[in-house]
Amino acid sequence: MMGERRMQATLSIRSNARRRGGEIALMCDDRSFTWVELRDLIARFAAVLRDEGVKPGDRVAILADNCDLYLSAFFAIPWAGAILLPLNTRLSPGELVELLETGDPTLILFDAGRADLLQRTFDAGAKRVPTLAMRGEARSIDALQAKAAPMEDLNRHGNDPASIFFTGGTTGRSKGAVMTHANHMFNSLGMWTELGADTSEVRYLHAPPMFHVADALFVHAVTAIGGRHVLLPRFDAVAVIDSIERHAITDVYLVPTMVGTFLDELERNPRTLPTLRRLYYGAMPMPEEVVRRFMKMLPQCGPIQLYGQSEAGPILTMLLPRDHDVSGKTTRLRSAGLPMPGGEVAIHDADGNEVEQGVVGEIVARSGTVMPGYWNDPEQTAKALRNDWLYTGDGGYVDADGFVYVVDRIKDMIISGGENIYSIEVERAISKHPAVSQCAVIGVPDPRWGERVHAAIVLRSGEAVTTEEMQTHCRQHIAGYKIPRSIDWRTSLPLSGPGKILKRKLRDEVMEAQSPLPA
């Protein structure tokens, strides 16, 4: 279909250059670009890639912090007909070897801060392919594009791959979720349609890393409406707050761990941030207390929860500001919201049959945002995509009004003494304690019960809590068999680059250090 073909990730760049040519599109450090300048930068960037031997369908990997060239690469790479392959800068050389083996890029772009990591990745066994610095060298993207003549957009089909985002690896090995041009555009259009909000003069702050699919969503979504991108190289609470004030930021996305740090800084140095209209959050559960705290501190700003995963491009549901009801005991703060426009969400049992309202099963979805599959992994693709549904691996249920509730990753569910225990429920109880900064709950082997509930907890600065005190606190909120039988008091939790807690690594650490449980 012609409409499907025209769903190109690069189309918004060309359109904005025509309609908003002189308006500021992008700001990073002391650099700013209008839409015309950004289009020309992208077209020259694409020409450099072509001259470096990149062909349509090739993968181009990036190992770098957020910067203007990184954002440009989201469009320059598909402009040249190739596929963007963002790499998590927090991974070890061995982990990067696995991703590069899967993605098999023709070229790797890197910034100065990642040169050593890239070299160590090659030393660890990664296939040696051509590399090109982003800037600061005689042969770098910024130096070469200054001399290059702009090339025409190759106008890829909407169903052609535009990017590959690796899954977080929170429960196992990362897989490369393919995103087509149309996937990106459907997510952008669906998000703004659901918000039904004034999108004029949107100024979006990129604080999380761009290698994460959630920030990639906003690269495309903000571009689709001609908003302004403001970039930070990495998350820093002080820098986020200063940037919101300095650039009159209207929208920002933060993962819950970042939101907590952001609010702590606002408490130390109060600001009102009057221009901030929307704060999006997702990637992991947000404790209700943090949501309430945010709404009290910044009442003019609407909180919006995004639920999804890399395979979904990434949004499946949204919980809008009007649904963040904090009055009384009955709230929807635990909900992930309603399905995106044009999308469907259902709950299936182990046999693939839809279950009744309120019954827990696996969350499945279908929409124009869902990936066509994993890159070069037909076996995992067949497991994830069945009978036209994406099987998310998340357990959940739907209420009578269609709101989706996520209870746990299926692999994270704990079975103790024959009872199913959802780690999110236990984490929610722990998070109600005012001394808690972060927590994660996992199941560990137990000779009597099969598994027992184990908690890893990080306290807020200056706080002290004993195991017995925390167990007493939890007893007020959850059944006795759900209370953690063991607690690991920590100064930090293992996090992915975007700030998601890596329960797989936590489980490995606990098992390595595990000692017999006291009688």
From TrEMBL:
The protein's Enzyme Commission number: 6.2.1.44
Q: Which residues form the AMP-dependent synthetase/ligase domain?
A: 15-375
Task: Write down what this protein is called.
Answer: 3-methylmercaptopropionyl-CoA ligase
* Domain AMP-binding enzyme C-terminal, first and last residues per copy: 425-500
Keyword line: Ligase
Q: Which CDD domains match?
A: FACL_FadD13-like (cd17631)
Which reaction is recorded as catalysed by this protein?
3-(methylsulfanyl)propanoate + ATP + CoA = 3-(methylsulfanyl)propanoyl-CoA + AMP + diphosphate
Q: Which GO terms describe its molecular function?
A: acid-thiol ligase activity
The source organism is Sphingomonas crocodyli
The family line of this record is:
Belongs to the ATP-dependent AMP-binding enzyme family.
Gene3D superfamilies xrefs: 3.30.300.30, N-terminal domain of ligase-like
